[in-house]
Amino acid sequence: MDNRLFFPATKRNKSSIEDVLLKVIKKNCSILEIGSGSGEHGVAFQKRFPEIVWQTSDPNLLHRKSIISWIDHEELNKKMPQPLELDVEKVPWKIPMNLKHSLQGIVSINMIHVAKWNCTKELFKQSGKLLEEGQFVMLYGPFKIRNEHTSRSNYLFDNSLKMQNDFWGIRDLEEVTIEAKKNSFFQEDIISMPANNFSIIYRKVS
Ligand SMILES: C[S@@+](CC[C@H](N)C(=O)[O-])C[C@H]1O[C@@H](n2cnc3c(N)ncnc32)[C@H](O)[C@@H]1O
To answer: Which residues share a beta bridge with 171?
Structure first.
């Protein structure tokens, strides 16, 4: 059965995110993606970086079914593992041993503003436990900078998120970075992306 979902934003932003990943991904490793959604990013990145293993995950069953369908559709079954059922708040994360050993980085795209603030905290706490010195966490999405929105469209988007769920909302980059630092990640790079988004690279230090 074809359970593929199609997320318009994902189609638009995948190539600019690939350009950022190109700078941080090394060969022969695995990347864990948190909140993979439809799976469109996962299959695109697996095809763009054939020398690595892209491990998708999502707590939402419909999203995991979509990811499975995208993997089938793109004939990536031999290369890509099935999505993990992973909710960042359900700790400790259940990570297969082979993934733990080959893991080089954790990527989460457009997740932290549609989840509770505690999800950001746990994302860094668990990443700090899984990753070694020199490995990275990459976040992509809209952020407030010094607690200010970077555009009117982000301000309106933030309001619409809060109307959907009191616990959602665009996060302030400084506050996110405080959580990163608590878990030994320093902010290595901030890259401005199309449509008032940012990619943030955090690198683990000893
Ligand atoms: C806006 S979608 C983005 C999906 C995908 N990363 C993309 O950019 O197309 C947010 C995703 O975060 C996932 N998510 C929400 N809460 C989560 C949590 N507590 N742990 C992990 N993922 C979560 C949702 O299921 C959803 O797939």
So the answer is: 143
Phi-psi map region of 204: left, alpha, beta (phi>0 left; psi -120 to 50 alpha):
beta
Does residue 203 register a pLDDT over 90?
A: yes
Task: Give φ, ψ of 191 to 5 degrees.
Answer: -115, 125
CA–CA distance, 178 with 173 (Å, rounded to integer) = 9
Condensed to tens digits (0 to 9), the pLDDT of residues 136-174 reads 999 999 999 999 999 999 999 999 999 999 999 999 999
Instruction: Identify which of 13, 14, 15, 111 to mutate to test ligand 1's pocket (most ligand atoms within 8 A of the CB).
Output: 111
Give the nearest ligand 1 atom to 33 CA: 6
pLDDT tens across 40-49, in order? 999 999 999 9
pLDDT in tens, 94-113: 999 999 999 999 999 999 99
- Residue among 114, 165, 170, 197 whose CB has most ligand 1 atoms within 8 A, to mutate: 114
Indicate the pLDDT class of residue 206, thresholds 50, 70 and 90.
confident
Distance CA 45, CA 113 (A): 22
Amino acid letter for position 124: F
d(CA 59, CA 88): 9
